Amino acid sequence: MLQTADITTQDGAVVRAKNRAGTERAIYLAARDLLAEQGFQGFGINAVARRAGCDKQLIYRYYGGLDGLIEAIGADLGTWVQDRIPEDTGGAFLLTYGDLMERLAILFMEALRDDPLVCKIVAWEVSKDTPQVRRLAEARTKALSKWLDRMRGTLAPPKGVDAATTNALLFAAIQHLVLSATVSGQFAGISLRAEKDWDKVAAAVRRLVRAIYG
After folding, report:
1. Buried b vs exposed e over 140-176: b needs ≥16 C-beta within 10 Å?
2. Rounded CA gap, 144 and 80, in Å?
3. Which residue, 72, 91, 122, sits at the end of a domain?
4. According to the model, what pLDDT value does residue 18 have?
């Protein structure tokens, strides 16, 4: 007989698990919230079990332990941009490679700003070289890469443009601005506190993308 687990997520929602699927979800949400709040320092089987209100053996049974939980979190985080653009409507709005990259860049920025765990993972990627961080980073990168390949279809960047390097620089800049906002609220004298500040950043990103990709 499966145990029932009640947990309260960061948004205040109470999740009651009455079956295997519900219990797995409760464990996952508990692990995700715990990782966002405390990082890997407070991330352990016992801590997750306490947060989920279940026996720790269920974590091993359903996820194979912490490694399985980390992989599940990483794979799920890889869909936060995909979830914002339904693939079956992409062709109606994305007419050029520039359209695609402009939209993806803005949504990437919004996703980072809205998700504290994603921000932490991005920060960990450049500051911590551990197996756990690599798993999260690889799962997220793989999911985003697959999504981009599906959305791109026959769209191609202009000839002579190194899209891989250009996009890496673009997304690195976005990541750095979002992380700077969480630490100091500014970067290089540019305020990153109010929505009007981010409107300016978004406008600048659009201009850069259009200047490169047309």
Report:
1. beebbeebeeebbeebebeeeeeeeebbeebbebbbe
2. 9
3. 72
4. 55
The answer to whether position 192 is within a domain reads yes
What pLDDT is recorded for position 47?
Answer: 96
Closest CA to 85 of 99, 74, 71, 75: 99
Closest to 72 in 3D by CA, of 128, 116, 30, 17? 30
Q: Are 55 and 143 within one domain?
A: no
| Residues 147, 152, 155: CA angle, nearest 5 degrees | 170
Q: Are 200 and 187 in contact (CB under 8 A)?
A: no
- Beta bridge partners, 6, equal 16
Alpha helices in the chain (DSSP H): 20-38, 45-52, 56-63, 66-77, 90-93, 97-114, 116-127, 131-152, 163-183, 195-213
Summarised one tens digit per residue, pLDDT across range 65-100 is 998 998 888 878 777 767 766 565 444 467 899 998
Q: Average of pLDDT values for 109-115? A: 89
Residue type, 107: L
Q: Which domain holds residue 189?
A: 82-213
